[in-house]
Amino acid sequence: MLSVIEENDDLVANGDQHYTQGLRLSFTHSDQGTPQWGVRLADLLPEFGMRIEAPRLGYTIGQSIYTPDNLRAEEMIMDDRPYAGWLYLGLVLQREGVTWKHGIPALDTFQFHTGIIGPESLAEMFQHWWHDSTGFIIPRGWDNHLKTEPGFVFKHLRQWKYSTGNEGWGAEFLPHAGGSLGNVATFANIGGMARVGYNIPDDWGVHTIDSLGVQTGGRAGKRSFGAYIFGAFDGRAVAHNAFLDGNTFAGSHSIDKELFVGEFRAGLVLAFRRFDLGATYSLRTREYEGQPHNDSFGSISLNMKF
After folding, report:
1. Which residues form the domain of 168?
2. What is the C-alpha separation between 136 and 122, in angstroms, rounded?
3. What percent of the chain shows pLDDT beyond 90?
4. Is residue 215 very low, low, confident or very high in pLDDT (cuts 50, 70, 90)?
5. H-helix or E-strand containing 279?
6. DSSP label at 139?
7. CA-to-CA distance for 301 and 280, rounded, in angstroms?
8. How many CB atoms neighbour CB 77 within 10 A?
9. In total, how many domains does the chain have?
10. What DSSP element (H or E) covers 93?
């Protein structure tokens, strides 16, 4: 499956601020196409109470851009978040199965991302090009962005699925728990997604770029059409956020972060035999002390299934 996610605060709000732009491209092998070394890797990891039935391997590349609220100021804005960019490559391992005790469908998603924070992330160049092309204000404070630093992050998410059935009209609830560890982001999270619709696809829901999960459903569906609406919540206890705490190995602009952050999502997915199209609205609570308001952004995802 090939998946593309584009996120931007301009999709739902007027103006660039805080988490302002994200783009991620992912490829996931089908169940039968997963390389043997990926299958062996899945077998080496602890099962955590789940019987593994379908390991999958994937790859991802992405970029995320963060700015303060005031794009006109050239000087460093001490009481707002830093300018920052994150350019990365990633390896994804998924293990689908059922729990040993109750036979509940479950999915493990492991991710390892490595990349660069700082000017080499190309965040300044991309944002200047886009704003110049579209007539938006050119941000003037990129000289204050975080310094060059290699980044890495390990992510794990476990999801469970409780379903009324996905033939015809149905509903599902997908709770999740997981965590992230690295100099880019370290946190623990818990939450869930509820979705209601017609011919709900046999997958695990749509995700945002910052989610610990990625899209699933790497093979063409059996039905010509399905659709569902969804609502989701994710709560995080945050120990480290490089885009607020600043550089790990050098002095840089930083701001005091909030230790607990919540995110609410709602959206619509149209599912066809060969592709899915999703639209998501995300509302994120304040991430740093003194932040004047919650943030929101929109996501558009396209998943092409083989």
Report:
1. 2-304
2. 18
3. 67
4. confident
5. strand 275-284
6. P
7. 8
8. 18
9. 1
10. strand 84-99
Q: How far apart are CA 60 and CA 41, in angstroms?
A: 18
> Which residues on neighbouring strands pair with residue 84, listed in sequence order?
66
Q: Span 133-145, mean pLDDT?
A: 85
Element (H, E) at 198: strand 185-198
Lowest mean pLDDT among 14-23, 181-190, 269-278: 14-23
> Which amino acid is it at 301?
S
At 255, list the tokens: 């701001």
User: What residue type is assigned to position 141 of the chain?
Assistant: G
Side-chain-side CA neighbours of residue 234 (13 Å): 23
pLDDT number for residue 26: 94
Question: Which residue blocks in the chain are alpha helix, DSSP H?
Answer: 36-44, 123-134, 242-245
Interacting residues of 63 by C-beta distance below 8 A, sequence separation 6+: 21, 22, 23, 24, 85, 86, 87, 88, 121, 122, 123, 126
Q: What is 11-56 written as a DSSP string? A: GTSSS--EEEEEEEEEEE--TTT--HHHHHHHHHS--TTEEEEEEE
Query: Per-residue pLDDT tens for 74-97?
Result: 899 899 999 999 999 999 999 999
The CATH number of whichever domain residue 161 belongs to comes to 2.40.128.140
Alpha-carbon distance of 212 to 274, in angstroms, equals 25
